[in-house]
Amino acid sequence: MTLGDATMILVACVLLYLAIWKKFEPLLLLPIGFGCLLANLPLSMMASTDSGGLLNFFYQGVKHEILPPLVFLGVGALTDFGPLLANPSTLLLGAAAQIGVYTTLVGAVFLGFNLQEASAIGIIGGADGPTSIFIASKLAPHLLAPIAVAAYSYMSLVPLIQPPIMRWLTTAEERKIKMEQLKPISQTVKIIFPVVVTIVCCLMLPGVTPLLGMLMLGNLFRESGVTARLHETAETHLINIVTILLALAVGSSMTADSFLRLETIKIIILGLLAFCMATAGGVIFAKIMSKFSGGKINPLIGSAGVSAVPMAARVSQKVGAEEDQSNFLLMHAMGPNVAGVIGSAVAAGVFISLFGDPTVVSNHAEISTNVISTISALSK
Amino acid sequence: MDPIVTTSLTVSLIAISVIFTVLVVLIYTIKLLVHLLPYEEPPASKPTRATSQNSLVNTVTPEIISVITSVMATHLKKSPQEFHITQIRPK
Fold this sequence. Notes:
Largest sheet of chain B: none
Number of domains of chain A: 1
Number of helices of chain B: 3
Structural class of chain B: mainly alpha
Distance between the termini of chain A: 50 Å
Structural class of chain A: mainly alpha
Strand content of chain B: under 5%
Helix content of chain A: over 70%
Shape of chain B: elongated
Oligomer: heterodimer
Number of domains of chain B: 2
Helix content of chain B: 55-70%
Shape of chain A: globular
Distance between the termini of chain B: 72 Å
Number of strands of chain B: 0
Radius of gyration of chain B: 32 Å
Number of helices of chain A: 20
Radius of gyration of chain A: 20 Å
C-alpha cells in the first residue's frame, strides 16, 4: 500500500463520516465514499481504471453517459412543474442563477484550466450532481472525481451557504414581501409541457437532448396518468438503483493519482465560488424582477434558481419565515427551483454544443468550431 | 489580457445569452399554452363524503363519546377532565 492509497482510504472514511454522522447528502456521499474505499484497497481491482473489475463495468455507465440521463428520468418523474407553469417568469431566475456557472468558468481559466475543464468545473454552480457528472465525463473525464465530490458536498451545504448571501443582498422589507397565491393549471397543459419543452429546447440546443429528453420523459410518465407503473418505477426503484451505480462509479474514480492533486484544491475553491455566485445571481435578478413587478416578487425565491431540488426552495421558505412567520414562500420558490433544473441542463447543452465531441454532435460541432474560430479571431 | 481569458469571457456572454433566449422562448410558449388551455374547475362531486359525515354525526351519540373518552383516559393515563374530544372522523 502506498502513501497515496492510505490517504485516499482516509478521504473515503471522511466521506463516510460526513454521510452517516453529519447526514451530508448520505444517499450519494455514502456510496461514493465506499466506492473510493474499495478502489484504493491494494490488489482489489475495484478502481474505475482496472479493466475487468466490477466497478470498471459500473464506470462504463458514466463514461458512455448512460447513468446521469437515467437519474434525470427519475428526477422528472419526481418533479411537479405546476408552480413553474403557474408563474412562468420564474424561469428567468433559473437562468439568472446560471451566472454562477459562467463566473466560475472565467475563474477556472484564470487558475490555469483549459476551456473544456473550466466548463466542467463551472457547471458545479448549477448545483446539479448528474449534470456535473455528465459534463465532466464528456469534457474533462480526468477531473470527474473532484468535480462530483465538490458538487455533491456543496449541494449538501446549501442550507449553510445560501442564507448569509440571501440576507446580505436583501432588506428586511424585501424579505417580508408576500406573494400572490399561484393560479391552478389545467392537467392538459401539464401533459403538453414536457413535449413542448423537449421540442423547443432540443431543436435549439441538440447537446441538451440526453438530459432534458429524459427529464421530460420522466415528467410525462408522471403527468400523463396512463403510465402509473412506469412512473412509480422511475421515481423509486430506477432512480435508487441508478444512484447506487452512479455513486459507486464516481467513488471508484477517486484514486490517489487522479484525486491527490493541486487541481482538486482549486476545484473545491471554485465550486464554493460557483455556489455563492449562483445564489447571488438569482437573488439580484429576483430583486430586479421585484422592482419591475411593483414589489410582487419576494427576492428570496431567486436563490432557489440553483437546481438543488427541493433543498434550495426550503432555504427560501426558511429565511422568509425568519422575517415573517406567516409568509409561505415554498411553493413560489419551487418555480425557480425546477427552472434551475432546466436552466442547468440548458447550460450543459451550451457547453456540449461548443466543446463537445465532434463525432457525437457532428453537425453542431461544425457550427461550434466556426463560432470558436470567430471568437478567437475577434479576441485577437 | 490573455486570449484564453478573453475567449472564456466571450463564451460566457454568448452562453448566458443563449440560456436567456431559450428560456424566454419557453416562457412565452407556456403563457400561450396556459392561455389556450385555461384551468377549469372540476365538476362538483356528489356529496357522498358529506352524507357519510352527516350520518356519522347522527350515529355518534353522547354515550359513544363517553365510552371513547373513558377508553382514551385509560390509554393516556389521564383524568377525563384533562382532555376534550373535539372531532371524530370516519376512517
